[in-house]
Every structure is written in structure tokens, then in C-alpha cells.
From TrEMBL:
Belongs to the sulfatase family. Residues 53-365 form the Sulfatase N-terminal domain. InterPro entries: Alkaline_phosphatase_core_sf, ARSB, Sulfatase_CS, Sulfatase_N. CDD domains: 4-S. The keyword Glycoprotein applies. This is ARSJ Arylsulfatase. One of its GO terms (molecular function) is sulfuric ester hydrolase activity. Residues 546-560 have a biased composition (Basic residues). It comes from the Eukaryota. Its cofactor is Ca(2+). Residues 532-545 have a biased composition (Basic and acidic residues). Keywords: Calcium, Glycoprotein, Hydrolase, Metal-binding. Transmembrane segments: none annotated. It comes from Corythaixoides concolor.
Amino acid sequence: MLAGGVLAGLSVLSLLTYGYLSWDSLRLGPGETEATRSGLGENPGAGTPSSQPHIVFILADDQGFRDVGYHGSEIRTPTLDALAAEGVKLENYYVQPMCTPSRSQFITGKYQIHTGLQHSIIRPTQPNCLPLDNVTLPQKLKEVGYSTHMVGKWHLGFYRRECMPTQRGFDTFFGSLLGSGDYYTHFKCDSPGICGYDLYENDNAAWDHDNGIYSTQMYTQKVQQILASHNPRKPIFLYIAYQAVHSPLQAPGKYFEHYRSINNINRRRYAAMLACLDEAINNVTLALKKYGYYENSIIIYSSDNGGQPMAGGSNWPLRGSKGTYWEGGIRAVGFVHSPLLKNKGSVCKELVHITDWFPTLITLAEGQIDEDIQLDGYDIWETISEGRRSPRVDILHNIDPIYTKAKNGSWAAGYGIWNTAIQSAIRVNHWKLLTGNPGYSDWVPPQAFSNVGPNRWHNERVSWSAGKTVWLFNITADPYERVDLSARYPDVVKQLLRRLSQFNKTAVPVRYPPKDPRSNPKLNGGVWGPWFKEDEKKKKSDKNKGVNKQKKNKNKKKAH
């Protein structure tokens, strides 16, 4: 045991000294493990392992549907391609169109309408966070003995200390609280003059780590340190939420080597960022093998939403982009890689949604789901591992009652069932219905990235007839949303509108408060962080009580 500890310590030291493990020298071949590889003599997993699997959930940021090698991208992703080929590719997999919604649904297993986060994202200056009465995935895993660690982007609110990752179920947290920031300086300006530092270790600003290291590499080093110091016989949950490939478009110079032929500067930078991310995931996989976790691990890879073409991402041949309810905004790259899978090397075309990870992972971890938790996710492990039918038949993509209303939307257009001015989208079996303003609707082919600047000349557009606020597609037959069937199948439209109406009856009020001036990092030592003080609230309420008492006494005197 002592020797193992020394080896682990040396491994951590070497990681800190030399950066993370090199791509060429340590890349393992298919089926190769830490036990079969020469030079890795230690056996850190000796002893009776836990029956509970190690869970590694990797969330990429803004990766487009096409932006992986096995979807035909010109960007090389050998690690993702290999892991997906040896695992199960999820080819009917859905997330939400933006950062906060996807993250909240992953960690709670609930639709946005059931957490109050159905509009936009949580802004840095908003006194808002994932509601504290929602049980989170790491909290449930801790109940059954898991060590829980988060590395990367939080983006679920931080205005009060209780909202921080370490208060929501994670034993440790290393990463950023906001939605984006500089990859090297970890600095973020929300608006002119409202700027601050955004890198945390647990509940404090991580000034000691401000060494100008590119965040993708820095987060990978942290993951390796966690794995080196943890006992692989005890179950671990690692949530790795990389910042890449979200804007700003930054990458170390060496990753541009294979992409100098891409003229479009945004696409070239994006390609370099994705190449670095692919290498990082290889190094995480190597660490899982080296330190004895791999054989009892489940690795899940997912993007949080579709790509943003103006920032280099591609969703071709899907329609639309990040921030929209077209397929390009919500259909994601995803796969599961694990020695525990029964049907390795397969493709799952069953309906899967990001809310499904909550019940699936808790069940795999031998945990219990409380009866009073109203989940929107399903346990889909047998669907993925054994190729069985998915228990899921529908997905509420969202109902956003405060998004800009469609000018021509009306109750009449919704057959008196639904106001089509409201932005909403729903999937039921093969059918998908959109109402209101679904967002940017172009198809952006690869040729659009052929020039130096953004070129929309290549984009395909459809100019809808005036007043259109309802669309219906058969996604199985028409995954690219080219043929609107709403006029041909009015009965199907009515059926899906009724389902929307049923969901809407269960919605909680939207949480989207105005800016709070106290959020300015200048008032918090130059750091983005919790600014709401419970004591202040108590003092104010006590003061108000005192004022109310005085008023009552005055009124009594007047009455006498």
C-alpha cells in the first residue's frame, strides 16, 4: 500500500512537471489495458473491486453534430472515433439548444419547465441558480458511497454559496462558474467594466493555478491527479465539463498544424481546439487504464448543444444551429464506451435524451430514486447496452413563455388548443412539432466555410409564407427537416398541441431575475463569485419587521 502511494505521488508530480501524458508515447491500442502494456508495472486495482461502476461523464461545449470524424468531418478526432467505434454510438440523441438548460437537465433528470430554467441561460449578474430544492445526480451517488468530483464549466448559477458545485453534491470542484471566458487567463467580461477572474478550486478562487495554461490541458491534468490519488476499488463519479469548443476561439499553436489549409479563420481555430480536446480525452482514457479504473468504468461522451456556424461549428446536414429548436441545435454527438457494455461496436437509433442519464446512472450505481422525485428521464441502460427498445416515446424540447413571441401566432392557428405565438417544440415518436419562433433556420453546408470570412451565400434557406407559426416533420423519414407536413396532417398537429398543453400544466414559473449590481466582481476582490449574503437578507427583514412594528404602534396610538 505504501509503495502504491509513493507511485501515485510520483505520478502526480510528473504530471505537474511535464504537463499531461504525451499522445504518441502512451496511446494504447484497441483492447490494450494497463495490465498488458509494458512499462506500467503497478497494479493499483489489486483487491476486491466494487460492483458499482466508475462513472465518467464528459461534456463538450458547442461541438457541432458534424464535428466528429465518424460523422464525416474534415477535423480529425481519432480518440472519439475509436472510443465510439468500440462502444455504442447514440444516433438519435438529444440535448437542449444552450448551455444551462442541458446541464440542468443532466444533473436533475428534469425538463426545464420543471426547474424554472426554461428561458435562455443563467447570466453572470443574475441572482439565479439551479433551484436548491432539486436533488442532484452527485448527491444521489454520494448516498451510495461514490466519491464525486467535477472538473470544468459549471454554469448553473453561483449568486449564493449554497448554489456552488461543492454544495450541490460534489466532493471537489475545479473549474469555472460562468458560461465562457479566456482559455488562458480565465478572465471574463460580462459587459464593459463588469469583469472578473473565473477559476475556482472548491469554493475559492484558484489564483495559484493562474499559470497561463490552456484550460483543456489544465482540466485534463486535474482529472489525472484525481485518478492518481483515488482508490480504484472505491467507486468514483467524474463529471468533466470541458470549456472547449465554445468561443472565444483559442488553441495552442501546435494544434493548427493539420488545418492550415482551412481558409476560414474561425473554422481553422475551431478545428485546432477540437484536435486538442480529442487528445485530452485520449489522456483521460489512458489515466483510467493506468490507475486501474478502466475495466469497471462507464465513459459517456456528449455535446451540450449544437454548433454555432459563426464560431466555426458545423451541424451539416442538420438544419439550424445552437440556440434553436431545429435539429442542428438539439441533436448531439454522443456515445457510451465501456467494457461493461454487452453490445459493443453497435449503433443505437432509439430515442435518448440528456435527462435519461440521471435515472440510468443512479440505477447502475445501485442507488435508489425517491418516489416523490418527479423525473422526466428514463433508465435507458438496457437500450444502450443490449439494443432493447427505448422506454422513451416523446421529448419535450421546451416551452419558453417569455421568449420573443411570433407576431402572427395565435390560438386560432393552434386550433384553440395552443397559442402558436409561444416558442415550443416537442417530439412524439416519429413526429416533431415546432411553434412560435424556432430560431435561425438555415442549412449551413461545408462550403460555407471555404472562404476567409463568414459566407452565407452557400446557405440554403426557405422563405416561409407570411404568418407561419407551426411546423410538423417526420424526423425518422426527414431528419433534415426539409418537408413541412403541418398542412397535410392537421390531426397529428392537434394531437401534439394537446400534448404540449398537458406538459404546460405541469410547468413551474420561469426564473429569470434582472441583474443585481452587487454581482460586480470589483465588489468581490476582482473575482466572479457568490455575492448574496444571507445575513444581509435577515438584517433587512429584521429592519422591516422593526419598521412595521413602529407603524403598528403609531396606528394604535392614533386609534386610541
